[in-house]
## 1
Amino acid sequence: MKCLVCGNEVKAQRCPVCGFPVFHVVAGKNTPEDDATMQKMVAEYRKKKLSGISVGIHVYSYRMRESSLELSEESEIELASSFEQLSAGDIIWYKESFAWIEDDTLELTTVIRRAEGVAQKKVLVKAPKGDGLWKVGVRMEEGLSFCILVGNPREYESSGEISLLETVAS
């Protein structure tokens, strides 16, 4: 059975990923009122789980030194927050653009901040075609996950799905 909140496989009384309980129906059939009540519970639980989460990435600045590039600064930028207000398919683009990098694949370090702490996960994204400036964004996926987007609002590449409940490092 799939969890109604995050879509993960559930074989116990609670989802092992988000903790939403499994409900069993007497006689095996829901009434329309049961369905409405369940949808409301799912929406409220999802909103509570997503509240206070933000997602960012590490960004790097380089400078030219004696005819070669040298790392000058590493920082973190926040790409998105307020996930409880997003639906699957919604995209948020970061306001600034980034320089084009001549590479086939980009390795990005995502940073997921929650009340429980911070999780970091490296993801690979195929480099978008073309040269010039790129934007970076976040697309909300079904359940409790997101993808990192690189490109522009018309043409972009995406990472695989990343859980917003990614394990927090202790």
## 2
Amino acid sequence: MKNKFSIIILLAIITISLTGCSKYEKDESYDTDLYGTYTQSIGTENSNYFSQQKYIFNEDDTYDLYLKEIQNNEVKDNHSKGKILSNATIYENIIKISLDNDNILYKYKNILGTFYEVKIPSENKFDLVIPTPSDNWTGLYPNAANVFNKNGFYHSCLDITNCNDTEDNHVGLYYKYVCKNNIIYFIDPSVEGMNWQILYYIVEDGLFTPELYKVEE
């Protein structure tokens, strides 16, 4: 999903989604087929900023992509159509989807997102660097990475070769994380009353970041 997802957008989604009444975000993943509608939204249409991405996968192996953005009362709408070139199970519960717009998407159960092939330590807290190179409208970050440490904290670097707290090289947000079953949850320790949110699913040979969820019609 190189044309859409970046570290900055992921953290924006995370920050906005910190709501709810339970201690841990409910895992709403379930097995389903590929075809159908998947959506992701940031903000609301009545707020200062709103964006929505929607993929519709059709049974004739075509797709529709809808992008909508509202900012300062300016509305941008885009709709494109194309073909699903291939979809194949590469690991248990992970399907790789290749589109004719050069995008690669990954599906885990009822969710589209990003898959990182990485060996996860068996400990509940660990030192781990996950390369997350980004090349999209936010900029080119070939050395971007997500960083976990044994103290139970997680942060993102725009340049892992020079990861510090400067505006250019570090997103500047630190979170606590915890592993629970096959899920890595995070929480913002600087905000009181927030809940643990799903950051990654631990899957065979890697991690999966949830981004677009299937809409049952």
## 3
Amino acid sequence: MGRVFVRLLSLAIMICTFVSCGIVDMIKAEQPVSINTSNVYKDLDMDVFKGFVDKMTVGELIRAHGRPDSILDANEEAMVEGYDIYQYQYPDCTIDCYVPRKVDGKLIGGILEDTLKMNELVDYIYYEPNKSIKLKSFVLNDSISQLIPQGKSVVYYIGDSFNNIVRFRLAKDNKGEILNVALNDISIFEEEKKLSAIVSEWNSKLPISLGDLGYLDAINLNKKEICFNIAINDSLLNFDKLTSENPLWEQIIGDRLFEKGRGLFNWLTSVVISEGAGVKFMLFNKNNHESISKNIDYSSFKRRYELAFSNIRRLESFIRYENLPYPCKLFDEIVCEKIEIKDGYLVLPFTIDGEPQDELYDNMDNLKQHDIDLLRDTANPDRNYLFLCYKCKFGLKKQYYYTFTEETVEVVFSPEEVKQLIKQM
């Protein structure tokens, strides 16, 4: 269950982002260095962020951490335009949450009344310690520490297969000390290119694999509309099922393609919006030549994809996409049913054509440990579910229904267990 391409694609996006954007060329003065890893929550001491996560709404932020000590104009404080800083002060550090400002507001008594909107999202987060912290206390993975040279660079970006990017700045006079750490501040990777240049560049690389979704067969620019032709894997996405059972299939596929910072074509989303273009994507079956297409005009595209998704919206979008081919036969005897969110848990139901057997299923602790071992496997795409559960503060339930005995065995991971698992994966 889950699709392998999600894991492969997230890594591909990370590599593409780091390589194509040429961060060394963009900021030659600081010469930032990028490093890829599998999981920053395992390799770095992410506890420095004190449980703050990006892409939570302001309402969720306040419910989880209380009202901020102050709300500041990011342009005045950090020369960052279009943002407010929701600042939380602790005895050992300050946590700055950067929230895009959609309306003008005035600072009144430490609160920007007009911009305190409960549904606005925290875009990225900064951890500012009161005094520098040791590099070795933050970077827990020795292999990563060894990649940090004692050269001129003081800025490092570490990205993982879950699309997290952590940036930290070293002290110039002591490379063993960290001055501050940012979570998912990707503003440096934004580059300005024309649609025509992007289309020309990507046409030279076709066909482009999209994992087990299929592959990108063609990309064209027709006046103010960019067109994608995608050869779909019909064993995963049945065309009749798409149109009859999923009336919002175009949004489901569109989210996987264009979600800001996450989608397969996320590198293109801001360019499409800046140039006022529309989008057309056509899915076709290369075997029987079936095809369906969808046009998204500029205003609809901008409204849906200009801003990043909240964590819960991202999880819901991910579930809708993963449910497209379900019920899905994983093996001859195992079928994965429809995934759902229920009572603060993500529920993954399986139907097994058999009965519980051997010591693995006779003992719940053994079964739970078995699932933990599977989640620790970096090749397991189910890790994406677990990470999204952590971001949304959800638990995880895996339900196994055995047809022979009509018995259901349920393996439950509480939200706190999910949090601990993230650090071990």
## 4
Amino acid sequence: MKRRVLALMMATAMVFSSGVIYAYAEESTESETEAEESTEEESDTEEESDTEEETAELPVEPEFEPNADYDIYTVVEYTIEDLGEDMVVTVCTYEDYSEFDVLCNFFGDDQDCVMTYDGEEFELVSDKTGFLNSEVPAIVELAFEQDIWLPIGEDGGTELPVEPEFEPNADYDIYTVVEYTIEDLGEDMVVTVCTYEDYSEFDVLCNFFGDDQDCVMTYDGEEFELVSDKTGFLNSEVPAIVELAFEQDIWLPIGEDGGTELPVEPEFEPNADYDIYTVVEYTIEDLGEDMVVTVCTYEDYSEFDVLCNFFGDDQDCVMTYDGEEFELVSDKTGFLNSEVPAIVELALEQDIWVTIE
């Protein structure tokens, strides 16, 4: 990934009617000249280094999930010197770095500032609180200096390379999914790897020739030690599987129920008659009403039960779905049915589903 070095040329903002613009210029450095004159061997070395940086671990856990409308993100630790305020900032951008969405919390207020960037100047698009725009150029400069970027998945988290065949174990903190091949047997497996934040123990889950595998091993940084192995088969493969997981370096948080963490706490418990559920934040634009909605469905998405509260009334609307059209089954209040298609579409776009016990 090409690193850009940005230098601050103006200490104060130039205010225009179209928004706030911050002037920056790219420095011409000796290193850039040397890079242009470097040999093909040096260029290859730089490309390898960049590849390593792209898969490198973020320096700190994000406090805000990245915005799924962008391509890549990073997390930086930033200090407002005058106030002595330390912040953990999520910085989202496109592959061409033409726009940045900067997310953090400052003294209890969630900040969300969007700016475009043409390679020389920033231009304000939106600023949720009006506070963060003056800090964005320095935050972005810090992100470029750090130069660790991860891809953003459709759900706003880091994208797994393949859908898991086994849900992660809720006793652990984070998980990933890797595709692993046992070369001697020519057997391909999709493996769920669960671990703690300190990587002291791993639970490896997969299926081999029809048998579900579950192998737990501790790790002290040098050696693995067997804790349990359901079938007695997988333990010899765990070190290589874990090594592959580390090389991939894509980890997602595990929710308390063992699935991917929901974006918001549900206000309504899911209906136990269904298989899976999710929770979405939905706004009825005409009324300016925000709702936290529990959406329950079967594994085949053939029917949805939508539960929420609207102006003090509990809503419960059930609709079938054939892949093209919704058909009303029941609506407790008669209000929600017109909103269900949009709510379900939002739930499908979010694509975070948890098993109903």
